[in-house]
Structures are given as structure tokens and as C-alpha cells.
């Protein structure tokens, strides 16, 4: 059976169940996406599709253990005294006591006349067991299941639709997102474009250039600040804005100081000193601006090759000569990818 996926009102697919499992395991299906089977018109959330509610399982009836059989004590064995034969001269002592018979005098420790020595004990300690009979069942019954335990119940929390051990054949590339090409081949959405990270400033690079020229570079300065603020959200360790502010500050401060020195040293013969002083400040400011360009480049490449891996590579030469316009070209590409899922 085939399935369709819906995101922000746009439908994608069809996909097989194995494809959807793989996309879900790779994090390429967003939390608000909907899924439906091709034989139904009902869309269900992807969380419910991959983790359907388990049907309640009736607990197994509790079987009471059989009552233990009553223990019947065996009847005592009757004891029959042994009577010696009449002609036995040693059975009872007489006047002419036989060999080994105690004297007939009373108090000598012998038994009274006619008493027999083989009197049995009062009770047979081995006749009645003091505990239940040997081999009887235990008190709780034999083989009874634990209370409340069902038979054959599935393991708790067993999810539906776990990802396969390895990605299937012919799946979309990891960096792809969402929108299928014109032929309807269907690439699944990519988690990086789901809104976890902010979208970059979205303007064509040539518009930034034109507006900068029209505004005498005031718009360019604003756009540099805008780019630095965005990169700071991607990389909290970015120092691009610090380098830019320092560079422009050194240049502007050098120009102001050169003008003051020109007025103060006019007609003193020290004008060549001012001519050397101004370029030094301009050079220092330019070095700080270049450091800002390459610091921003490093932050962009670090983020877009790890957190949102789109394989971004920025040319050092283009960074040196075109810097913010070159960055804006790539920012516009990334913004389009965020909106449509296609990386130009």
C-alpha cells in the first residue's frame, strides 16, 4: 500500500511504508506533518500513524488455587503386651529366684511381682506427622499465575513502525527537503528546513548593492549590521560585528583626527605628517573589516556544515573582494531552501 504526506497544505508522495519509516527515523518528517493511506481520504498526525494507540487487553481471569486436601492422621497401632510362657522360670521372681533375678525383698529396686518389663511407651511419636503429609501441594496452589497478570500480553509501549536496519534503495538524499520535482518523483522533507533555526535575511544581493549606492552606503552599513545579528544567532561566539564596528570606528576616527591636525598644523610646515597619519588609520580600519568578513565566513561554514548541513563552501577570494554581497547571495539561496525545500 502507498501513503501520502502533507505539510503546510502541500501533499507529497506516494511513498511506501518502508520509506516513511526511514524518513521518520532520519528526522525528515516534521512534528505537524499528516499522513494518509491511498485507499482513504482521512489524514492523521504522523505521531499517531507511527505510534497507534494499543488496543486494551482484558486481564486474564484469576483462578483460585484448589483447596488443600485435609490431612488425616493415621490410626494408632494397638500395642499388645507380651506375656512370657508359664514354664519360664525367669518370668516372675519367686522364692527360689532363678539366675539373674533380683531378690524378692521389697525396696531393692526390682519390679513388683508379676510386672512385665516390656511396657510400651505412652505414645508413638512416629505415628502421626506434626505437619501436612509428605508431597502435598503448597498452600498457595500449584502453578497459579500471579495476580492480575494476563497471558500473552504484548510488551508495554511497543511502538509501531520502527525504522529498518538500513536505509532502503533509491531514497532521497539526506540534504533534500520536501518538494518533489516536476516529474513527481517525491523527495521527503528535510528536518533542517522545518524551522528549528531562523531564516537568513532574504534579499537579492544586487538589490542590496543598488540600495547602498542610492543611499550613499547608509543602507549597506545597515545591511552589514543585519547580517552580523543573524550570524550571531547561528554562532554565539561570532565576533564579526565587533570587528566591523572597530574597523569603521578607526577609519572615521582617523579621518576626524586628520582634519583636526590639518587645521592645527596649517602653515607650520608639518603638513606631510598629516599625509602619513591618515593612511595608517585607514589601513588599520581596513584590516579590521577584513577580519570581520572572514570571521563571518567561518561562522557560516561551521553552522551550515554541522547543524544544518547543506555543504556550504565559501570562496576566500570572493569573501575578500565582495564580502557582504557574496554572503547575501548565499543567504538568499538558504532562505529559498527554508521556504520551498529546494536548494538552488
Your description of this structure?
This protein has 344 residues and is mainly alpha-helical. Among the domains are: 2-52 and 159-193, no CATH class; 205-340, no CATH class. It has helices at 17-25, 46-50, 205-214, 218-234, 240-264, 271-303, 316-340; strands at residues 2-7, 10-16, 34-37, 44-45. A four-stranded antiparallel β-sheet has the order 2-1-3-4. A hairpin with a 6-residue loop joins β3 and β4. The radius of gyration is 51 Å and the shape is elongated. It starts with a strand and ends with a helix. 16% of the residues are buried. The model is unreliable at 91-123 and 127-192 (pLDDT under 50).
